[in-house]
Specification:
Elements: H1 2-6, H2 8-27, H3 37-48, H4 66-78, H5 82-106, H6 111-123, H7 125-130, H8 137-152, H9 161-175, H10 185-194, H11 201-232, H12 242-256, H13 260-272, H14 293-310, H15 312-317, H16 319-327, H17 348-379, H18 383-402, H19 407-410, H20 413-429, H21 439-456, H22 477-503, H23 518-529, H24 533-539, H25 546-558, H26 562-569, H27 572-577, H28 580-586, E1 594-595, E2 606-609, E3 613-615, E4 620-633, E5 642-649, E6 663-667, E7 670-675, E8 682-689, E9 698-703, H29 711-715, E10 730-737
Antiparallel strand pairs: 1-10, 2-4, 3-4, 4-9, 4-10, 5-8, 5-10, 6-7, 6-9
Helix pairs in contact: 2-5, 2-6, 3-4, 5-6, 5-8, 5-20, 6-20, 8-9, 9-11, 10-11, 12-13, 12-14, 16-18, 17-20, 17-21, 17-22, 23-24, 25-26
């Protein structure tokens, strides 16, 4: 009992962290894959198929192997990414323990620092949110903190070869998770040799031996992957090739500004495909199509270095802006899962959590965290420990500023900020204010206030001279919070309106206010569901929005004008959005017993399918659909026995991927039958339907195994589908009820 009581702050921290992670698991408003999730999942899925890292052969870059292997193991065992989330949740709890352990190394006497650091880490919402993503940060941060904990216990005066070897092993594991760790290796080696207070010459030889032991273990773990990657990607690849792409992105953004997107797409596109013409103007000569990832890496790095050396002033001039951007809060960044906050799609509880445990946590911790870099050396850490901690704290900032400042770079700092902020809080609780009046702490305090002003910009609400971040106008936290809170009613009204349309479309009035685009489409939708196509057409707004165009096409289809309907449904703008989900929810399509899947006129009758594609050999159109896809036949039931027919093409199912089971065909909650997922022929499957009341809708659901296509398919996703991994279950031509 005494031991439990002595560890009460540890248990409290873990309890808070567990509650935070359960909360995130339940309410996180995920709507598709963000950032690099689709890439990691695709590559990991191919690994689970036993294809090695072949997915990256056709992608812009290659990745460090450990995280794709981590995800692949979970997919192979559990079948879904939720097992990845669960394991990462456990790892994020380990972060709390590691932060306390690091704080105890730095403050072996003052246990209060470890207690406060553990609590701050447990309360940091981003650490819980990142654990619910298929991104490498959680695994990398585990190794990052373990290395720091091991190194802080390293006795510079009496170096241990075993501890040095262990540091080398974990440095290699971290490098194999994210290549950014390569930048830390020379600093660790130099720190072991020369860190801390000067020692007699006889100790230097022992230090050198420790560095050699560390580097041997580091390269023993690292080089097998380097050998494999160099063979697989046909050239010299130490860890990955993403650094070349990121360097080129940074260089082109610096030189071309707003035109950098087109410049990057043109340069890299010509490397990836023979059908793309190389850009006419480049800094270094464009080599044309390159068949291997290693060759593409060399071409991108050559162009990047040419741009940087040709425009060094522009590259240096961007650093201050990047430094400001690094510390600022970006309310709508993808990793925060706040997309759609102005439309009410983000739950109010999550909005509140983001305010309290992300933004407010950051604003309140930032000043004491930076002050803690001085307090730590004053009170706790030895000189060598302080030097290493500064490297761990400052190097991610430098890398982020030199390349590009994104939320994912700052996530690494949060556990370290918890430690330094805890040191400052304990220092202030000891009422030692007078020590801050000296020159060095005064300089650190001034620096902390400057950085805090970049993040909080308290004067932005009164003048436009400051970039908004926390207190100021859009896109500040407080401004966005106000929009998000007002949008809650928009979401409630849209749900009520949808329910009204399905239950009794003659109900009046329409709930207001409604989110865009419903705010302008609601009267026309109301008329459509009442069956008054003429009035609905008159009520449609004059804009050319996608939803307006889809409604206009649906009304033309309802009136029998299939030529106009097909022309409107088949525009490039509609194709890029592929608005099947919106159409499924809001359209009231005309009765039918036949759905020509992929023929443009299927919008409103299907959901869970991807963009249509033509087959010149068969002179037919198809759509790939995912597990859970649905077909709707409005008013198709006739009160007699009927049969469902599905024209299925499974010829594209990979031969080396064994389906986990058949495709199941369901009518509501009744299983009609199954279909083999991977037969090599085009076929028509038939299923007997039970007798349904005349005039009823027939709702069919297909569930089954799916496979992930190659990187070319992933790269070809554009518009709103960009970055979205496709899971292909079945390719449908048409569906009929007879």
């Amino acid at each position: 009992m005494i031991a439990l009581w002595q560890r009460r702050w540890l248990w409290l921290s873990l309890l808070i962290a567990i509650v935070m992670r359960i909360f995130v698991w339940v309410v996180l408003p995920r709507a598709g894959w963000i950032s690099d999730e689709g890439e990691y999942l695709s590559a990991a899925t191919w690994l689970s198929y036993g294809r090695g890292f072949a997915w990256y052969l056709d992608y812009f870059w290659t990745r460090a192997p450990l995280y794709p292997l981590f995800v692949a193991a979970h997919l192979r065992i559990g079948g879904t990414e939720y097992w990845v989330f669960f394991s990462q949740m456990l790892l994020s709890l380990v972060h709390v323990v590691l932060v306390r352990a690091i704080a105890q190394r730095l403050y072996p006497i003052q246990s209060a620092v470890a207690d406060v650091a553990g609590l701050l880490t447990a309360l940091a919402l981003p650490l819980a949110v990142f654990a619910m993503t298929v991104l490498s940060e959680t695994l990398f941060l585990t190794f990052f903190l373990i290395i720091l904990w091991l190194a802080l216990g390293f006795q510079i005066a009496i170096p241990s070869l075993w501890r040095a070897a262990l540091i080398g092993i974990f440095l290699a594991l971290a490098t194999l998770t994210r290549g950014i760790m390569l930048a830390f290796v020379p600093f660790v080696a130099v720190w072991i040799c020369w860190g801390g207070s000067p020692l007699p010459p006889e100790y230097f030889r022992k230090r050198v031996h420790a560095v050699i032991a560390m580097l041997i273990c580091y390269f023993v773990v690292l080089m097998p992957w380097s050998w494999y990657a160099s063979r697989t990607f046909a050239g010299s690849v130490l860890v990955d090739t993403s650094a070349a792409y990121n360097t080129l992105l940074t260089a082109q953004t610096t030189v071309y500004g707003a035109q950098s997107g087109a410049a990057l797409e043109g340069f890299v596109g010509a490397l990836m495909s023979e059908r793309v013409t190389p850009p006419a103007t480049t800094c270094a000569p464009h080599p044309g199509y390159q068949a291997t990832a290693a060759a593409r890496q060399q071409a991108m790095m050559a162009e990047a270095m040419c741009l940087i050396t040709t425009h060094p002033v522009a590259f240096v001039a961007r650093v201050p802006a990047q430094f400001v951007d690094f510390w600022q809060i970006h309310y709508a960044s993808a990793e925060r899962f706040t997309k759609g906050f102005t439309l009410g799609t983000v739950p109010p509880s999550y909005i509140t959590a983001v305010l309290l445990f992300d933004d407010l946590w950051y604003i309140l911790v930032l000043i004491p965290a930076i002050m803690g870099l001085w307090v730590m050396r004053r009170d706790g850490a030895t000189r060598s420990q302080h030097e290493l901690f500064l490297v761990w704290f400052c190097l991610p900032v430098i890398i982020g500023v030199v390349f590009f400042s994104i939320t994912r770079f700052r996530i690494i700092l949060l556990p370290l900020m918890s430690i330094t902020a805890a040191a400052t809080f304990v220092f202030l609780l000891q009422k030692r204010w007078h020590e801050l009046l000296r020159p060095l702490p005064g300089l650190v305090m001034a620096s902390a206030l400057v950085i805090w002003s970049l993040a909080a910009t308290p004067l932005a609400s009164t003048t436009t001279a400051f970039p908004p971040s926390f207190f100021g106008p859009s896109p500040s936290v407080m401004f966005c919070l106000d929009l998000a809170q007002k949008a809650v009613q928009l979401r409630t009204n849209s749900v009520d309106f949808l329910r009204m349309l399905y239950v009794n479309p003659w109900t009046m009035p329409i709930p207001t206010p409604l989110p865009a685009p419903l705010a302008t489409l609601a009267p026309a939708l109301h008329a459509t569901w009442r069956g008054d196509a003429t009035q609905a057409l008159a009520l449609l707004p004059a804009d050319d929005g996608i939803e307006t165009q889809v409604m206009r096409a649906d009304l033309a289809r309802s009136k029998g004008d299939f030529v106009q309907a097909k022309a409107l449904f088949g525009t490039q703008a509609v194709d890029q959005r592929n608005p099947l989900e919106w159409a499924w929810l809001w359209l009231h399509p005309a009765p039918t017993t036949t759905i020509d899947v992929g023929g443009d006129l299927d919008i409103g009758y299907i959901r869970g399918c991807y963009l249509g594609e033509g087959d010149a050999q068969l002179d037919a159109n198809f759509r790939w659909c995912s597990s859970g896809m649905q077909l709707r036949f409005p008013q198709a039931a006739n009160g007699l026995g009927q049969r469902l027919q599905l024209r299925i093409d499974a010829r594209s199912w990979p031969l080396d991927v064994a389906p986990r089971g058949p495709i199941e065909v369901w009518l509501d909650n009744q299983l009609l039958g199954t279909v083999i997922a991977n037969t090599p022929t085009l076929r028509t499957a038939q299923f007997d339907l039970p007798v349904l009341p005349a005039g009823n809708d027939i709702l069919i659901t297909l569930r089954g195994p799916a496979f992930v296509p190659d990187a070319n398919d992933y790269r070809n996703q554009t518009g709103s589908q960009s970055g979205q991994m496709r899971r292909l279950m079945v390719r449908l031509d048409w569906a009929k009820v007879e």
